[in-house]
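To the wet lab folks,

You asked to see what we're planning to order before we commit. Fair enough. Below is the target structure as C-alpha cells, and below that is the sequence we designed to fit it. If anything looks off to you, flag it before the synthesis order goes out.
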C-alpha cells in the first residue's frame, strides 16, 4: 500500500468496477466460447474414434479424449486466467479478470472463481451467472465469492 492509499498492483488509483465492468452480453459470448472450446475436445475425439473404428465396436471418446479435455479445461480456466487474467473467450471479446481492487489474480482466487464458483452456476440453475446482468457492478456469484471483477479491456498494472 502506498502513501496515497493505492496498492502497487492496482490498474488505476481510482478503480471503479461499475465504470470498467464488462457488458453482460460480452460475458455471455465469452462464456459460450469457453464452453464450446472445452466441449469440442471430446466431440472431436469421438469423431476421430469413429473414423478409426472398425464399426464392429461402437466408438467411444476414450481415455486420451477425456485427458485432453481436462488439459484444455485446466489451461483455459486456470493457467490462462492466472498468467494473463483471461480465458480464450475473454481474450476474444476483450475482457480481463482482475481482483476487486484492480490487482492481478492469485492462484487461490482463480481456483475459487473458475472451479468452485463455476460449480455454483448449474447448482443455482444459472441464477449465479445471470445476477451479473442486473448487478450494478456486473459481478456474478463466482466473482463475488472470489472477490474478482471482469472488466472490459486489458490490464495495465502500475508499479
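Sequence we intend to order:
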Amino acid at each position: 500500500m502506498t502513501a496515497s492509499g493505492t496498492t502497487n498492483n492496482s490498474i488505476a488509483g481510482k478503480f471503479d468496477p461499475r465504470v470498467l465492468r464488462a457488458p453482460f452480453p460480452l460475458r455471455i459470448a465469452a462464456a459460450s466460447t469457453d464452453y464450446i472450446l472445452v466441449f469440442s475436445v471430446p466431440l472431436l475425439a469421438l469423431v476421430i474414434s469413429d473414423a478409426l473404428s472398425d464399426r464392429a465396436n461402437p466408438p467411444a471418446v476414450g481415455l486420451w479424449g477425456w485427458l485432453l479435455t481436462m488439459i484444455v479445461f485446466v489451461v483455459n480456466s486456470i493457467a490462462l486466467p492466472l498468467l494473463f487474467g483471461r480465458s480464450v473467450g475473454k481474450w476474444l471479446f476483450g475482457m480481463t479478470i482482475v481482483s476487486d481492487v484492480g490487482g492481478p489474480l492469485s492462484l487461490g482466487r482463480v481456483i475459487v472463481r473458475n472451479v468452485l464458483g463455476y460449480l455454483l452456476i448449474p447448482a443455482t440453475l444459472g441464477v449465479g451467472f445471470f445476477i451479473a446482468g442486473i448487478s450494478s457492478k456486473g459481478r456474478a456469484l463466482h466473482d463475488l465469492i472470489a472477490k474478482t471483477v471482469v472488466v472490459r479491456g486489458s490490464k495495465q498494472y502500475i508499479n
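Structural context that might help your review: The helical segments are 17-20, 24-52, 62-84, 88-92, 107-123, 127-134, 141-146. The chain has a mean pLDDT of 84.

Thanks,
Computational group
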